[in-house]
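Work Package 4 report. The design task specified in the project plan requires that, given a folded chain encoded as structure tokens, an amino acid be chosen for each position. We show below one input record used in the internal validation round.
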């Protein structure tokens, strides 16, 4: 390391880096923060992640193998809260964080999601520490209706997000699309909004060794069904209902298996039930699998055995699973929106689809399934694209942003 190591505190109020992504409210943000924090710690920096204690049995501090320290702060009841309930515990978290910072010299505070930004704002100011903000997702603007599938998360969200865009020292966006949203919607200073590209673990997510899985051989050589996979928390925003409708629109004799990986968030049981009911209504129980949430290794195995990954999400600031599928050599069919336009190279690593008509999505699936050569060439291109990214280079970009910010003060 050329420059001296930094001391960085990540603040992540509503979900823990120890949670399994795809369960509770853990998703892309957990993967991104854990991967960047691990890469920074492995490069010799001192890294803490401050999160809320949501379980009585959590120890105060947990040392991760990378050297990152996870600190559980008491704020509100020591049980899982629905996302919207966290607004009520921000003030308590803020006090606990301020007390912690009094004994832990910190050069950069990096808040993840707006709850964390609000909780970190005063403690950062009081201690003279620059505050960096990542939103990960941004609420729908009040003048436009909520995006389909989006529930109002909590009353203070939009005002909180807007305030942070003006008060923090730097906003880090995960995509150009998110950067534009921060600039256009909140009127933030462009010099203080920077994109840090995401990475993917190309050792964990890799194509099937030997090039062809048993499932693929079964499909191509023995008349079995190909597999369309969707991955994510079972939240209406993910558009898994559209995935079911799209697969249902494909004639039964050529219909692929639909595999759904992920668990409902704390308040998401009703939606999970609706998805099961839709599968039953379309007579697809025998050709649909609900796997629940999978740990990283198992998930990587599932992705490389799939034929296509579908991302019908109504909004996505990035869509990390697109990059994970690419690294696995699997083409992606995704909605033509937000960060998915950057995560998927249309016509090269996958296909972008607009709108909510299941027939259009079914058409895109059928077109790819009808052309195994195209599937294979897109898969190869996708892997190549993923190999050009890594969490180490993502962490280096982050570090460069931190150092530029420190130098400017
Ligand atoms: N994920 C996982 N296991 C699951 C479901 C999801 O590890 O059962 C991971 C997935 O691989 C990805 C993240 O959770 O890394 C979801 O990120 P994405 O950006 O796609 O969606 P978000 O959760 O941020 O809305």
């Amino acid at each position: 390391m050329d420059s001296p190591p930094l001391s960085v505190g990540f603040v992540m109020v509503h979900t823990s880096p120890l949670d399994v992504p795809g369960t509770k409210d853990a998703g892309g943000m957990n993967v991104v923060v854990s991967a960047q924090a691990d890469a920074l710690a492995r490069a010799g920096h001192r890294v803490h992640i401050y999160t809320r204690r949501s379980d009585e049995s959590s120890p105060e501090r947990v040392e991760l193998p990378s050297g990152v320290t996870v600190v559980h702060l008491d704020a509100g009841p020591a049980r899982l809260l629905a996302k919207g309930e966290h607004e009520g515990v921000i003030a308590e978290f803020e006090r606990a964080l301020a007390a912690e910072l009094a004994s832990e010299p910190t050069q950069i505070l990096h808040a993840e999601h707006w709850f964390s930004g609000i909780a970190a704002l005063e403690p950062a100011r009081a201690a003279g520490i620059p505050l960096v903000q990542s939103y990960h997702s941004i609420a729908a603007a009040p003048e436009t209706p909520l995006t389909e599938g989006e529930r109002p998360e909590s009353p203070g969200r939009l005002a909180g997000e807007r305030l942070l865009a003006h008060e923090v020292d730097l906003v880090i966006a995960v995509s150009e699309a998110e950067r534009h949203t921060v600039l256009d919607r909140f009127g933030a200073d462009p010099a203080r909004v920077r994109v840090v590209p995401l990475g993917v673990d190309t050792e964990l997510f890799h194509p099937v060794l030997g090039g062809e899985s048993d499932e693929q051989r079964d499909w191509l050589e023995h008349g079995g069904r190909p597999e369309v996979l969707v991955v994510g928390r079972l939240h209406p925003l993910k558009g898994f209902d559209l995935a079911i409708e799209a697969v249902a629109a494909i004639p039964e004799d050529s219909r692929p298996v639909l595999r759904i990986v992920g668990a409902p968030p704390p308040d998401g049981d009703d939606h999970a039930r609706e998805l099961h009911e839709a599968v039953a209504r379309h007579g697809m129980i025998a050709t649909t699998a609900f796997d629940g949430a999978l740990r990283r290794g198992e998930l990587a195995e599932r992705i490389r055995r799939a034929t296509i990954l579908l991302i019908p999400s109504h909004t996505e600031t990035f869509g990390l699973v697109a990059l994970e599928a690419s690294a696995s050599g699997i083409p992606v069919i995704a909605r033509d929106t937000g960060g998915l336009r950057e995560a998927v190279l249309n016509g090269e690593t996958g296909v972008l689809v607009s709108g909510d008509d299941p027939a259009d999505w079914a058409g895109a699936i059928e077109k790819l399934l009808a052309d195994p050569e195209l599937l294979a060439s897109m898969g190869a291109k996708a892997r190549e694209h993923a190999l050009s990214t890594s969490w180490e280079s993502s962490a280096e970009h982050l570090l460069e942003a931190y150092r530029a910010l420190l130098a400017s003060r």
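The pocket of uridine-5'-diphosphate is lined by residues 21-22, 27-29, 31, 231-233, 261-262, 293-294, 296, 299, 318-321, 324 (CB under 6 Å). Validation will be extended to a larger panel in the next phase.
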